[in-house]
Amino acid sequence: MTSTASKTTQKTAHIVSEPSRKDAGKTARAAELRAANINPRTGLATDYLNHFNEAIMLLEMIPDMPDCAEDFLTWRPLSYREHFAASNFRARELAIAAYDSADSRIRGEFDSITSAMTSILTAVGTAMRQARQDKTRARLAEQATGWVKPLVTLAGGIINGQGIQSGAEADVDYIMTH
User: Fold this and answer.
1) What is the pTM of this model?
2) d(C-alpha 154, C-alpha 26), whole Å
3) CA gyration radius, the chain
4) For 26, 98, 133, 178, which has the most beta carbons within 10 A of its beta carbon?
5) How far is CA 145 from CA 67, 97, 112, 152, in A?
6) Residue-by-residue DSSP string for 123-142
7) SS3 69
8) Strands (E), the chain
9) What tens digit of pLDDT does each residue of 91-110 get?
10) Distance of CA 4 to CAs 7, 13, 17, 72, 133, Å?
């Protein structure tokens, strides 16, 4: 009997310890991501938004300093992976790996928004190269800033796990999870 009880205890301990190891691994991974400024729930890092904020900053300077248009025209779009591969971000490999393993729905929403920002900024760059008057470039810069800033906010919301659900979708999700 003692031998059977001992085997049962060992099996139970094994069953209990397996989820505990998985939970400990998830907890350690989440802590590692948080320490690197990567959201553990989404696998995304706000550092990528600095790439777009740089372009916005340059655009905002153009109306007061028209020569900054040339600085904006040197800005080049980078994908999430390209940004981190080229950056000095201390956990760049972790950021890329977390992005690659992120939920495809979250990553898809995020990529859609960053793609829209890239398209806007690229189109504005093309238009500025063709514009000959500072006033035209200033107007393009102001319009682009108005379009891109809200998209940066949306992308930040996705990174932080807020998503871009409509009010009804968010209400349904809240009801289903509570």
Assistant:
1) 0.77
2) 27
3) 23
4) 98
5) 17, 31, 18, 10
6) HHHHHHHH--SHHHHHHHHH
7) helix
8) none
9) 999 999 999 999 999 999 99
10) 5, 14, 20, 75, 89
Q: Residue 119 corresponds to which tokens in the numbers above? A: 């398209």
CB 59 within 8 A of CB 72: yes
Instruction: Please choose, from the candidates 42, 52, 121, the residue with its C-alpha nearest in 3D space to the C-alpha of residue 83.
Output: 52
Residue 45, strand partner residues: 38
The burial of 142, by beta-carbon neighbours within 10 Å (0-12 exposed, 13-18 middle, 19 or more buried), is given as middle
Position 24: which residue type? A
What six digits make up the tokens of 11? 């099996």
Distance CA(175)–CA(18), nearest Å, equals 32
103-149 per-position pLDDT tens digit? 999 999 999 999 999 999 999 999 999 999 999 999 999 999 999 99
Quick one: 40 exposed, middle or buried, by C-beta within 10 A (0-12, 13-18, 19+)?
Answer: middle
